[in-house]
Write a structure and sequence with these properties.
This is ABC transporter permease. The protein has eight helices and no strands. The chain is mainly alpha-helical and 254 residues long. It has one domain. Helix 2 packs antiparallel against helix 3 and helix 5 crosses helix 7.
Amino acid sequence: MLGKAVLAPAGTLIAISLEGFRKSWDVRRWWGEYVEQCWFIARVTTLPVMLIALPLGGTIALQVGQIVRQIGAESGTGATVVQALVTQVAPMAAALLISGAGGSAITSDIGSRRIRDELDAMEVLGINPVHRLVTPRLWAASTVGVMLCSLIILAGIAGGFFFNVVREGVTPGSYFGDATALLQLSDLIATLFKAWIFGFIAAAVACWKGMTCPYGPSGVGRAVNQAAVIAALLVFAANYVISTLAYSLFPPRI
């Protein structure tokens, strides 16, 4: 019973994701919806990203600054802040915001279409609802995830600069001079790849819960909550796997 309760929903999620990804080549059919969804997800997540990234960079700078000050290595704070933001903080924060804000809206939208029987109506008209609704949302969330990841890095560096340079007295040259000391090109590539994958996961879970939610407003509400939780858990698991592979293939610079 437990295996059926876990494997059946997992199979449905994988089937919807693969079917939505399979028709990605037919760009003309979903381009308009893709642009609209990109604008919507970016609109609901940009401001929260800024509000989260600034204190995140400041918190990392404060915590690291207190430690490195004891050994007289304050100039290494910038490198530590940038390393943490690029490799771990930025893609995770972008994914959680997409799943919490954009994913909730996607689930409620598709769930509302389901309880109004719009998905069945599409099938009657010969339109595959997965190709029509899921494919553009998968690509939109992935694209916005990469864009938000870059925005979080910039905002986090600005927050770290304020707390480390303005508040702690480290010179700007020291902060920015060592900012890339611990980074490699492979770190940035892995980060953008993770951001793309995490956005894809968040959108896939949101679409899956919306298309399989129970009928009624309460069913849509429960699906929204479940989508946010499941997406967060899957993102954390995917982050562990991808980070482990990245560190094994491209060891960090010391």
